[in-house]
Amino acid sequence: MRQSPPPIAYILPNMFTAASIFTGFYAIALALTHEFSSAAWFIFLALIFDGLDGRVARMTNTASHFGVEFDSLADIVAFGVAPAFILYLYVGDMYGRLGIVVSALFIIFGAVRLARFNVTTSRIEPSVFIGLPIPTAAIMISIAILLLEHYPYYHHYKVFILPFAVVLSVLMVSNIRYPSFKKINFNTFHFMRFLISLIVIALGVFIYPIEGMAILAVGYLLYGPLRAAFYLLRRLIGHRG
Length: 241
Description:
Elements: H1 11-32, H2 36-59, H3 65-90, H4 96-120, E1 128-130, H5 134-150, H6 161-172, E2 177-179, H7 191-207, H8 209-240
Antiparallel strand pairs: 1-2
Helix pairs in contact: 1-2, 1-3, 2-3, 2-5, 3-4, 3-5, 4-6, 5-6, 5-8, 7-8
């Protein structure tokens, strides 16, 4: 008979979830003092905690309905409210009501994305995501801010973050599919090729951390629309044939 984990074991994954909420809130606090680069990095830290809570829960066999709901609430704070608030303070407040609408839209569509995910998936992790995951959208906002802060010469392009945020919001509630790395079957990978690719990517990100992460994030962002366009084009060609 399989022994159930001790009750205290259920605290560990929820502590990571709580840490994700705290880092999201701290990012807001940093943005209030105009420390936008630090605020953006704390969104990355929230992403790390968000990734750890589910994995720790599965490793310790402590997954629970409470943990799922808690994680969802944490996501809306760390990856919805926090990046939207940073976005508004960084550029949105310069454009009055337009900035308010764009920032609020990011939170609203992020909440819709999370609600749809919760009602359409079971306890089994999906192999693909329907719509852009809200953590990815939050990271894209953070990367845009980090790039502009790293290259001050381009500060006059800050306004373009607002339409970019609208695109991210729409992608979150779209039916475009994105890959989920939680169910990758490493047994089907060629180990040496995978290892070499991983080393090259890691070294590139180490040398150029902001630019490297930006390339990876944009690649993931474009994968969904390009994949959808490819299948749509193939379907149209098939009908004409």
